[in-house]
Amino acid sequence: PPLRPYANLAVNRLKRLVGNKVSILAFAKKKMDSRGRTLAKIGMEGRDVGLGLVREGVAIVFRKYPFAGMDKYLSVETQAMSESKGLWADPDASTRAKALQAAYERERQK
Which residues, 6 or more positions from 19, have their beta carbon under 8 angstroms from its beta carbon? Predict the structure, then answer.
């Protein structure tokens, strides 16, 4: 799948950023999605690590479950898209990401 390399890049980047350092998890109202993935923000040294991954274009905003600060995430994602960062520079990956975004929005509207 076109997004797999970017998912792997995001995981590796997250490991390098956080590693064994002290981090803060801020859980959403719903702690797990339907696939068993944790829904949380990771904070480290006063930074929102997930927001940084979105800014780099290696992660997209999971829109299905609204969360505090979602508007900021969406704004940063739009900027990464307009600047063709990370996956947004790859036509196949960006097409798949946009399809996922639309699916998440539909799910959220239910």
Answer: none
**Neighbouring-strand partners of residue 106:** none
Angle at the Cα of 88 from the Cα atoms of 5 and 29, rounded to 5 degrees? 80
Cβ neighbour number for residue 83 with a 10 Å cutoff: 12
| C-alpha–C-alpha distance, residues 110 and 106, integer Å | 7
Which H helix or E strand runs over 40? strand 38-44
Q: What is the DSSP track for 68-100?
A: TTHHHHHHHHHHHHHTT-GGGGSHHHHHHHHHH
Number of H helices, E strands in the chain: 4, 3
What pLDDT is stored for residue 43 in this prediction?
83
Listed as ranges, residues in the chain with pLDDT below 70 are 1-3, 20-24
